[in-house]
Structure formats: structure tokens, C-alpha cells
Specification:
- It is elongated, with a radius of gyration of 27 Å.
- The longest helix has 29 residues.
- It has six helices and no strands.
């Protein structure tokens, strides 16, 4: 008799546990785990950078199409180096934005290419866009933030 009552008690306990687990799964409260907190932060950062890349790409396209600037600053009146750099950034910024939004590895690579390209153009060829150290500093801060977040996210996942 004790074996039967022990089995019934174990069955009741399992039923209660299963009921509790199924109710927890049905509850509207979401239990947040701290397992992937850096990965979520990295994806959020990439999405913010995607929005910024879209704005930068559209700005360059506005320069190409003549939506912004005066007649003296028209695309046709600029140097060949300026025109080339502007078209390059108009295309690559929007490509990077798509990849960043999707949080794909190629998106980060394309975005890193745009960051480094802009810094090189500003530092090595100041005649094209004016050589603004502020732009270089902002690009360096964004690059540093990406590298720090990517490193912390990589540390979350075991090899």
C-alpha cells in the first residue's frame, strides 16, 4: 500500500509541476535572462548605426541630385574627387545600413569600410570634404563603441 500511495504522490507532484510549468509558459510576463545582454546591446547599437547610415546615405544622394546646396555648390560644379567620394558614400552607406539593420556580419564589414574610408578621406585628402577632425573623432568613437560591444558579446558565447 505504501508503494501505491508513493506512486500516486509522485504522479500528483509531477502533474502539479507540469501544470505550473505550462502556466508559466502561458503567462504574459516575459522572463528576461541576462545570458545575451551584450548581444542585445550590440544589435541595438547596430540598428542605431543603420539609421545613421541611412541618413548619411540620403544626405549624399541629396547632394548628387541637387536637393540641397546652392547652384554654386551643385554636383556638376564640384571637383572629380568630390564627385567620386560623394557617389561612393551615397551607395555604400545605404548598403551598410541594410546589413547593419539585419545585424549580418557583412553589414558590419561594409559599415567598418565606410567608417575607415571617411576617416581616411578627411585626414589624407582634406581638399575633398574639408578635413574635419570632428568627423574623424566621431567615426573613431563609433568604431570604438562597436569594437567594445562586439568583444563583450563574443565573451558571452562560449567557444
Amino acid at each position: 500500500m505504501s508503494d501505491v500511495s508513493a506512486r500516486d504522490a509522485a504522479r500528483d507532484k509531477a502533474r502539479d509541476r507540469d501544470g505550473a510549468m505550462s502556466m508559466a509558459g502561458m503567462s504574459s510576463e516575459r522572463i528576461e535572462s541576462d545570458e545575451n545582454v551584450w548581444t542585445r546591446r550590440l544589435v541595438t547599437f547596430l540598428r542605431v548605426m543603420a539609421v545613421i547610415s541611412i541618413m548619411k546615405g540620403l544626405y549624399h544622394w541629396a547632394q548628387v541630385t541637387g536637393f540641397i546646396g546652392s547652384e554654386e555648390e551643385a554636383f556638376e560644379n564640384q571637383s572629380m574627387a568630390w564627385q567620386t567620394a560623394t557617389v561612393y558614400f551615397a551607395v555604400i552607406e545605404l548598403v551598410a545600413a541594410v546589413g547593419l539593420w539585419l545585424a549580418t556580419p557583412w553589414g558590419a564589414v561594409v559599415w567598418l569600410t565606410t567608417v575607415v574610408s571617411m576617416a581616411v578621406i578627411e585626414l589624407m585628402f582634406p581638399g575633398i570634404y574639408g578635413g574635419s577632425l570632428t568627423v574623424v573623432a566621431l567615426e573613431a568613437v563609433m568604431l570604438g563603441a562597436y569594437l567594445a560591444l562586439a568583444w563583450m558579446a563574443a565573451r558571452e558565447r562560449p567557444p
